[in-house]
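Aim 2, interim progress: modelling of the adenosine-5'-triphosphate-bound target.
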Amino acid sequence: TRFVVGLTGGIGSGKTAVTDRFAAAGIAVIDADRAARLVVELGTPGLAAIAKHFGPGILDAAGWLNRAALRRLVFEDPAERAWLERLTHPLIGEEIARGLAAATSPYCVLSSPLLLETGQKDLADVLVVVDVPEELQLARTVARDGNDAELVRKIMAAQLTRAERLAGADIVIDNSGTLADLDERVAELHGEFLARAELARE
Ligand code: ATP
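Predicted structure of the complex, ligand included:
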């Protein structure tokens, strides 16, 4: 069995900062966001189904998905959102399974903003939550994206609350310190996961 570390956290909590560090240690990182983009790329059955359902207006002139338009549509209409999720979640699941199967490192990390909200959590042997206080999450996201705080607050409100995420965690990474602190914490967990992956092989 391959040992899978599921990693999640709210917007701007530091998921990428964490996975960069596991990747630097030679660990395969499977990114659910990337899988979600792949399944609606040009020429995919996923994109064809979306264009058929919403009409060609959902595509740009070159035939690519207009993500902003789709986001607006499903944000305003829960039924359309449910339709889209019924289509994409299984496709994303297959894409993630392919990534996990192809990984050759001693264990791998599945990073997903929706790990706890979807069946993706069932793919993980251990659930890790990257945690920061909301105000720091907001400040770091605004600094990174240059978006206004109101928009970031809206996105945060649509995600699980900090308490809900923490309730789903086997392991918490406190990312309220410096990036040097994060180096140390990830190195510590890397050692722990190597040992657990070794045990899981027996
Ligand atoms: P998203 O959900 O939007 O993809 P994320 O969880 O991947 O976000 P990151 O992009 O890793 O979050 O981090 C958000 C921002 O905060 C980035 O600009 C990152 O460089 C910065 N950051 C992350 N951790 C720290 C830290 N410990 N100290 C200072 N800055 C940090």
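Residues 34-104 form one domain. The beta strands are 3-8, 28-31, 107-111, 126-131, 171-174.
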